[in-house]
């Protein structure tokens, strides 16, 4: 598996909830993220609501569907409370057990992705707590995250379906932190005081410790994956010099995010942006294989098409441009397999359609 190009999809919003993907789940609560939702809802309402979601949002049928479309990997975001040992939050390790059974049945590999940590590593809703980024300042919580990673490696390290474990999703950089619209949206302003970006020296130290914990139970045949922390070129020789085996760097690249800062939405602009990424991928890939672990088709050029036929053609054009770049590295993983479980339900905003891989397949947007 490690020698093949990775071609996969994320199973986000299953074990880690993200409001933007399924806003109806949060309706009437005023919560912007998973932890705030837990705090706001009575336990007798919250627990069955979350159980129903986890029971139905991803099923064996989805693994069969993913494999039938020629994919070879699923990246599964998991929360820090996966083992059910934090703040009364309901664990979900039994669903990850099921995922391994299904993946192995259909010939898929799993990349387990620790997507949240207590106190958050980025202040986004995908970090569990909007507007708060203080995890790295709390030594006890840093140690706790390491124990979660070690327990995951102990439980799944010898499973046939395991590709590897990703140490931490999207620890935020200075530039991304100061430009993040989520930075000022904390529910509890007092809790958010002291929030700041995750420094690179800390991240390198944490990554080294995490690698050692994971390798206690997981052989070098399985991969350890590290997110670039939005600093792709900062890692060139770090892994060469660390003595780590079978490691990958994960980078996330979205045209949708670039468009927030660039007012021209045309293919030639996208090519310029992606060519920068291509050069960086080539340079870093000399030292460590790079996975584009999150990307999608969403772009305003395609959304602005006047007919469905033109829209599909534009999306296919942009898909080809992106895939050509991602293949400079170790491969790519689409975000996300789905947004709404009901494949016929309309989205609250049109731009979300192309984030949903099942809709892209149905409408012929993917090459």
List the strand order in the largest sheet: 1-2-3-4-5-6-7-8
Biggest sheet descriptor:
8 strands, parallel, barrel
Radius of gyration: 19 Å
Q: Which CATH-level-2 architecture?
A: Alpha-Beta Barrel
Mean pLDDT: 96
Class by SSE composition: alpha/beta
- The CATH superfamily is Glycosidases
What is the fold named in CATH at topology level? TIM Barrel
Helical percentage = 25-40%
CA-to-CA gap between the ends?
Answer: 23 Å
- Total number of β-strand segments? 8
DSSP summary: helix tally: 14
Order of helices and strands: EHHHEHEHEHHHEHEHHEHHEH
Segments where pLDDT lies below 50 for 5+ residues? Answer: none
> How many domains comprise the coordinates?
1
**Large-scale geometry:** globular
CATH class (first level) name? Alpha Beta
In terms of DSSP E residues, the strand content is: 5-15%
What does this structure look like?
This protein has 14 helices and eight strands. It has an eight-stranded parallel beta barrel, surrounded by four helices. α4 links the parallel β2 and β3. The mean pLDDT is 96.
List its salient traits.
single chain; 367 residues; alpha/beta; TIM Barrel; eight-stranded parallel beta barrel; 40% helix; 11% strand; globular
Outline:
This protein is α/β, with parallel strands linked by helices and 367 residues long.
């Amino acid at each position: 598996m490690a020698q093949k190009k990775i071609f996969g999809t994320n199973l986000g919003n299953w074990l880690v909830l993200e409001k933007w993907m399924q806003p109806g789940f949060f309706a009437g609560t005023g919560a912007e993220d998973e932890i705030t939702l837990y705090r706001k809802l009575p336990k007798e309402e919250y627990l069955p609501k979350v159980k129903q979601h986890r029971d139905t949002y991803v099923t064996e049928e989805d693994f069969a569907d993913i494999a039938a479309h020629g994919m070879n990997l699923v990246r599964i975001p998991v929360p820090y409370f996966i083992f059910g040992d934090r703040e009364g939050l309901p664990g979900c390790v039994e669903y990850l057990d099921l995922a391994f059974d299904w993946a192995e049945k259909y010939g898929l590999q799993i990349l387990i992705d620790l997507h949240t940590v207590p106190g958050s590593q980025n202040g986004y809703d995908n970090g569990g707590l909007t507007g708060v980024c203080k995890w790295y300042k709390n030594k006890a919580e840093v140690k706790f995250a390491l124990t979660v990673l070690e327990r995951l490696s102990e439980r799944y390290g010898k499973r046939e379906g395991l590709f590897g474990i990703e140490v931490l999703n999207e620890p935020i950089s200075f530039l991304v932190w100061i430009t993040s619209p989520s930075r000022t949206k904390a529910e509890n302003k007092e809790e958010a005081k002291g929030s700041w970006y995750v420094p690179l020296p800390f991240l390198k130290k944490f990554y080294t410790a995490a690698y050692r914990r994971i390798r206690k139970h997981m052989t070098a045949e399985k991969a350890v994956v590290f997110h670039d922390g939005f600093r792709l070129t900062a890692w060139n020789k770090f892994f060469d010099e660390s003595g780590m085996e079978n490691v990958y760097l994960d980078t996330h690249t979205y045209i949708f995010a670039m468009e927030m800062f660039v007012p021209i939405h045309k293919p030639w602009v996208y090519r310029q942006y992606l060519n920068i990424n291509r050069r960086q991928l080539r340079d870093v890939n000399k030292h460590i294989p790079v996975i584009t672990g999150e990307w999608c088709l969403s772009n305003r050029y395609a959304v602005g098409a006047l007919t469905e036929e033109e829209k599909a053609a534009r999306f296919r054009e942009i898909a080809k441009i992106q895939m050509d770049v991602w293949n400079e590295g170790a491969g790519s993983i689409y975000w996300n397999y789905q947004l709404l479980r009901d494949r016929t339900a309309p989205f609250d905003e049109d731009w979300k359609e192309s984030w949903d891989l099942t809709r892209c397949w149905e409408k012929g947007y993917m090459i």
